[in-house]
Amino acid sequence: MELYSGYINKLVDELAALPGIGNKSAQRLAFHLIGMPEAKVRRLANSMIEAKANVRYCSKCFTLTDSDLCPICSKANRNHRLIMVVENSRDLAAYEKTGKFEGVYHVLHGAISPMTGIGPGDIKIKELVERCADDVDEVILATNSSLEGETTAMYISKLLKPMGIKVTRIASGVPVGGDLEYIDEVTLTRALDGRVEI
Amino acid sequence: MELYSGYINKLVDELAALPGIGNKSAQRLAFHLIGMPEAKVRRLANSMIEAKANVRYCSKCFTLTDSDLCPICSKANRNHRLIMVVENSRDLAAYEKTGKFEGVYHVLHGAISPMTGIGPGDIKIKELVERCADDVDEVILATNSSLEGETTAMYISKLLKPMGIKVTRIASGVPVGGDLEYIDEVTLTRALDGRVEI
Questions:
Q1: Contact B93 A45 (CB under 8 A)
Q2: What is the pLDDT of residues A122-151, one digit of tens each?
Q3: CATH number, domain containing residue A133
């Protein structure tokens, strides 16, 4: 859009390249940023650069952190023999928010997806197997219940079971508060198959 | 969320303070930024700082630009005697995209809103009146058709009409492609009042 200025156009284009931000929101954001006090804009810009420069993977579980070990892996009162495998740090955050899990995590940073060319070697599976050489009681597979997540879970379980490790998968079924009539058939079938006696 | 790192939390908080970005999207954006190549993050951060530092108001129409006069005000082949008054630069962009307007603009940067304490002196009304001291044939009021936009349009028309300037207001009515049954009564009434013979 030649009607603005080169600086605005450049900013709009770069904002629009971020996930979940369309052209309209990028424009709105750009104008908002220009209207913000300069100190605030600099602070946001610096936060981005600093986060990028300082955040790295936890050397044990591979979640994003700014020290060698993440806060969870460094805690003595977590059960380090119980590992929950998740696809990314956001999933870790989601489970951590429940406050119900006392073990530690392993972040794969993706899932096996032959469609997009992501193989077992592209995500942190080798590192998980290495961790499991130490004392581990149980590995809970909490990858998404998508095709990729299921494939990844199957793949990992086939690697770990021969090592004598108990491998479990989080339950899939009807979400709490979900209205049956709006739930897809695959989920309903899963919920039926996974029924438990009460 | 203590489970991430200080750097991530800070970035998430600052992103979540932007308009239209909730906590979840801020988190998603932050992780995306951290996953981006460092050069790209620096480029985005710099674009923000540069846009903030270099973008200013056009000295004539007050839209955002990076030179003294915006591209529209500097064009000789636009009708400089026909001024469309809009609330902000995004509205200017919306009209400019139609490609149907050959005049120039005047950006108010807001609308009169007694509820939030924005008076006529807080927006670029004085500057519009000054512009109108030169040769101007018509001023088209294209403020929003909200209470604030209407109030602003009324206020401006009362200032300009005594100066012998033709003042018009963009039509309000049923949007093209709009389904009557879903349109509010005020709009329907407006459309009726503004009916034209065919």
A1: no
A2: 999 999 999 999 889 999 999 988 889 999
A3: 3.40.1360.10
